[in-house]
Amino acid sequence: MSQDPVVNAMLLEMCAKAKEGTSHTYTASTPDMPDPADTDGNNGDVNSNNSSVRESSLPALRSIDGAPVPAKSENTSQRNITVPGRNPKDYEWLREALASVESPERQVKRLLDTVEKPDISKDEIINALEELSDLVEDINWATEFALMGGSKRILILLQSLEKNGLERFAEGTSEVRAALASIVSHSSQQHGRVQQCFADAKWADIIIPMLLKEESPTTLAALLHACSCLCRNFELNTVSFLQHNGMEVLTSLLQRKRQPRIVGDPIDNKILARIFFFVAYLASTGVSSEKLIKLTCEHVEKSADKNNDNYGVESMQRSAAMALLELAKKSPSLVKRLVRECMPKQFKAWSQVHMSAEDQDPRCTFSNEMKKLG
């Protein structure tokens, strides 16, 4: 069938008119040219347009039936086409399929209503949140999400989990929080209108305090990513993050003692990569601190320890290099000194990183910038 619903409707109507066990012969004549003297354009055969529509549509019907399309008659002015009869009930499935198609707007509304149900199970809410998260990655459906008050509704859900999450979902509460944070990230990323909606809903009052309380690495990474997406290229949210002591929160996270990954370390390389990526953006806006630079260098140096889990080390180091590059633009001498004091081994290793045209490794770029400073 055609992807055009108008064409599908026309085909259904024609099929419904076909009588079971009978055949119809349509004779299509070449339409007469309208009389140029007729300024109203009504002199021609009024049925000629309908005839041409039927003629162009019948081959499609024949292909549905699996029957070959009859060859054209030698007389090009006339074609004889026979359509076998079909029971209209044969196309009932198509009518039902067309009626069941759900528009993205309705999907967004349905999913928002679903996740707000008080008696929803953990699996049901996670499935609905994941489906909604996929939808709002599209900028158009993210806008629909915002117009339906989705920003405020998601924040209210996050806040409610702080109070009664364990009662509702037991050990699955952190998983639900991660799914909610993912919706915040996907809907607000590079989308000023949605970022504004979250600003109006006071996102910083709810999400920033969660960063220091969260014990799940996966959920903490999701919350950090949400903060990063909300702030990136949107000054109002960046200012709000800083006013809510966001830099102090990031510094506190970097000061947490690292534990073996099997213990469930809340500060692993993935978390560090998220933090440094966010710091790189904040530094590009002029935000910096000596303590933050020192902690960044120390984590990079520790990443070479034999006891350190190598999972995600390169990604973490690349994010750290991006952060140090931005921090060096404001405080080049300070960054240079702390790099030499706090990460001498890794800085030497970065100097030996090969950078190709396909891979502009920020570690190599940072090393070259430091060499320019002497």
Describe this structure in words.
- The chain has helices spanning 5-17, 48-65, 92-100, 104-115, 122-135, 139-147, 150-169, 173-188, 192-200, 203-213, 217-231, 235-243, 246-255, 269-284, 290-302, 313-330, 332-342, 344-351, 362-372; strands at 23-29, 78-84.
- With 374 residues, it is mostly helical.
- It folds into two domains: 1-17 and 103-256, Leucine-rich Repeat Variant (Alpha Horseshoe); 258-373.
- Helix 13 runs parallel beside helix 15 (290-302) and helix 16 (313-330) runs antiparallel to helix 17.
- The longest helix is centred in the middle third of the chain and has 20 residues, at 150-169.
- The protein is elongated, with a radius of gyration of 32 Å.
- The termini are far apart.
- Mean pLDDT is 79; it is low at 18-70, 72-78 and 260-266.
Q: Could you name the key traits of this structure?
A:
19 helices; 4% strand; 374 residues; Leucine-rich Repeat Variant; two-stranded antiparallel ribbon; elongated; 2 domains; mainly alpha
At a glance:
With 374 residues, the protein is mainly alpha-helical. It is built from 19 helices and two strands. Strands 1-2 form a two-stranded antiparallel ribbon.
